[in-house]
Each structure stands twice: as structure tokens, then as C-alpha cells.
Amino acid sequence: MVAALVLATACSSDDAAPLASGRAAVTTTTSEPQATTSSSTSTAPAVPLFAAAVSPVTADDLPASWRPGCPVPVSALRAVDATYWGFDGQVHDGRLIVAAEQAEAVRAVLEALFAARYPIERMEPVDVYGGSDAASMDANNTSGFNCRPATGSTSWSAHAYGRAIDLNPLQNPYVKGDTVLPPQSAHLVDRSRTHRGMIHAGDPAVTAFAAQGWEWGGDRTTLKDYQHFQVR
Question: In the prediction, which pLDDT does 44 show?
């Protein structure tokens, strides 16, 4: 299912964290041993490598997020499987479903976030949550494609085209007037806080997406969608 593998090359390292079962095997490199002494031999600790793969998807892969009548066909979507740093400080495997023409840009964003060790709690297709945006947010899941209307609208969301990503939604709520989504994040309307995974202007997340031409919902004026990034 893999169309491409990309490995970060900035660091000497041992094994990359493997992608999830059924995904592409990751090529690894091995660092040279450090200089030895007459009494002992030491080896540099392994530094995790970023790994990513872009691959096509089918309707069977998107049982809850895609259906006939959606504004894009399944053939216009891609899976981006990639490693990321979790809230636990460990490297995990995740997947985003995005528009085919944005797959490489998203891969580049994830590589930049990995290099910055930017924490992501969870990264799974919204299908894991039955296509429910609310359930995905409650799980603090970072997600992309979902064939649904925009919040508070009957028009298609940018997510329905695979051109939007919501990042760490519990730390970065949608705010419009008295409406806060998810509701349990109302205390985080105060953006002077600095919780792990919170997005602020000019931070590595905003910078990484902006470098690929994506806009941040925290820059909007009529509402604030702090979790939301999209490209026109």
C-alpha cells in the first residue's frame, strides 16, 4: 500500500520506530560505534528516525468517513502513515487521511513536527470513532478527512475535501461566542496557558503548516478554531 518512504537524515541514528502492522517496513541506518578505550566499549544511544509512507485508500478503509455523495471520490484521497512524538515522550505510529495533492505537504509538516518533538496525543482516521467528530475530539485525536459539514453550517467542511487537519483538539478548542468545542476544554479559551500540545502563534505547529501554505484557525477573527489547519 505504500507509495513512498521518507526518512529524516539530520541525525546519525540506529533503528527507526516501525510503522504499524500491515504498513511499509522502514529502512534503518546504524550509527558507527564511539571511540573505545582499553577497558570498555560504548555505543551512542539510538535516536529515533522520522518515517512516513503515502499510499492510496479504498472505500473499505474509510467505512464511516466516506460515502457516495461526498464532494471528493476515494481515489482523490491518500493515507499518510507517519511516526510522531506522543504525550508520553515516546515515538508512535499514526495515520492521517488527506487530499492526494496535499499528501506530500502533510508528510513534510509531520516531519517538521517530529524534528521539533512536537507532542501529539493520538493520530488516527476518524473512522476509528465511527466518523464522529465529537468522539474524535473527546479522545484528543488528531485527524484529517471526514465527509461532514463545517461546524454550524450546511456547507461542506474543508475536512470533507481532505484539506484540513485538527491537531490536539482537547488543548485547542473551537470557540465562537459562548460555544466551545469540545465543551470540556472551556478553560483553555484562555490562551495565555501553556499546556502540552497547546498551539500558539509562531510555534512549531503553526510554522510547519504555514511553510506548506496552510492556514491556522487561531488567526480567524469572527471565531477561533485553535485546533484547525487548512489549505484553500
Answer: 73
42 part of a folded domain: no
Q: Is residue 35 part of a domain?
A: no
Domain that holds residue 141: 4-30+48-230
Whether the predicted pLDDT of 167 surpasses 90: yes
Instruction: Match 476544554 to its residue by C-alpha cell.
Output: 185
- Residue ranges of the alpha helices (H) in the chain? 103-115, 133-138, 204-210
Assess contact for 16 and 28: CB atoms under 8 A.
Answer: yes
Residue with the larger pLDDT of the pair 34 and 150: 150
Residue 214 in any domain: the answer is yes
Q: What average pLDDT is seen over the chain? A: 87
Beta bridge partners of 175: 180, 224
pTM beyond 0.85, yes or no: no
Pick from 48, 42, 54: which is nearest to 80 by CA? Answer: 54
132, 150, 152, 176, 201 from 217: Cα distances, Å: 20, 13, 15, 12, 10
Q: How far apart are CA 41 and CA 98, in angstroms?
A: 47
